[in-house]
Amino acid sequence: MANIRRGMMAAAGAAGGAVEYQLWAWGKNSAGSLGDGGAPYGTSSPVQIGDNFFGEIDFEDEGIIAIQDRIFTSGTGASAAVKGDGTLWTWGYNIQGKLGLGDTTNRSVPVQVGSLTDWRSVCGTGTAMCATKTDGTLWGWGKGDQPATYPECSGQDINVCSPVQIGSDTDWAGVLSCNMVSNKSVLGLKTNGIMYMWGNTVDPYFSQGGFNDTVIGSGKIYCRLPQRPGNDPEGGNTPDDKNYVTAGCARDNVWAIDNTGKLWTWGTNQFGTLGLGDTISKSSPVQVGSATDWIWVSGNYGNSLFAGKSNGEVWAAGRNDAAEFGLDAEGAYSSPIQVGGPGGWQSGGHGLSTGTTHFVTDANGDNTGGALWACGTGGEGVRGDGENSGIISSPVQIGTDTTWVALSKQGSISSHWKLAIKKAG
């Protein structure tokens, strides 16, 4: 999968060699989620976290997908990042040991998780996190599947405050949050392109018909350990030939890209979020259009899905209540529509349930960095333009720098803050 993912990102590679990168944050600072050690009211403009926080990253070798997988923001006030040296850092709200630091104490600045240097990607749910290592193993911590409760993404039967390996497989490529109604599920991709899901899947459409050996209650479906979606033991609703390389989730729905650049979708479809021109939910993958040049996807809790093409175009479908599509208008779209702004976007990310979108332009023509733009609501300062309220329906540039690279793409319920990676210097 690693080679496939890099191949898919060829158009988003950078001029060769590793350079140093910084971490920046803005928005609400609930329980220290920004990581700047500051007051809980947060900031409406980007602030730098540490010095050159990430150290050296080889952008050409990794590509945008893998780099975005290094940063995560959770709706319950926690953040995480994997540095260029493979160390894992967490901060913010430490409910049920979610930070993986061996305790339940909140942190207002990044703290290293253990001493290992082989972490690759990180994500999480409301009260748990999970991560992959460079050896292909999967790890989880935080809330477990306790009596009278339901599992999240830790993969454990009890609460754990430090990382514990989930299973024994060594072919995990990455993990990402699902932005579910309950903020309790994740998707995982293996190196062979097969997709897995675990946690509280909320809706059978999203889990493609359900899971085997699940606990079902209150109309919801649960699975503590990673499992392929579908009704039969082989995951019959997820054909092997899809070979997914990345995915993005909105509220009980998903867009996923396969290794040929095709875009697939399934899940609930109340606002036309699937992008199929209707509002009919789908319990198995359906191709969105016929294009074969999709390279990244992202979704938000507000029922919007975004996808980028290799030519820099970004398209969106679903709910658009806060004009987060940048089209000078609000209102849902059931078919993909190209988002507004200057175009030539190289990456994107958003995660505020009421609708804020951020993008980075390809300022240098080689995807080595660009200007940061935002549109939608400014609640809690999450837009990053110095304002704490109001709606901007057409993208505006945040500052004047042209060295922004990537943003945390998988925010979850009420993630009123953002993390971003920026080139040093």
**What portion of the residues fall into strands of 2 or more residues?**
35-45%
Cα-based radius of gyration, to the nearest Å:
19 Å
The low-confidence parts are 1-15, 212-219, 231-240
Structural class: mainly beta
Which percent range fits the helix content?
under 10%
Largest sheet: 5 strands, antiparallel
Q: Helical stretch count?
A: 2
The number of distinct β-strands equals 30
First-last Cα distance: 32 Å
Shape: globular
**Nearest-integer average pLDDT:** 83
Descriptive overview:
This protein is mainly beta and 425 residues long. 4% of the residues lie in helices and 41% in strands. The protein is globular and about 45 Å long. The two termini are 32 Å apart.
Task: Compose a concise summary of this entry.
The protein has about 425 residues and is mainly beta. The chain has two helices and 30 strands.
Task: Write out key terms for the chains shown.
5-stranded antiparallel sheet, 425 residues, mainly beta
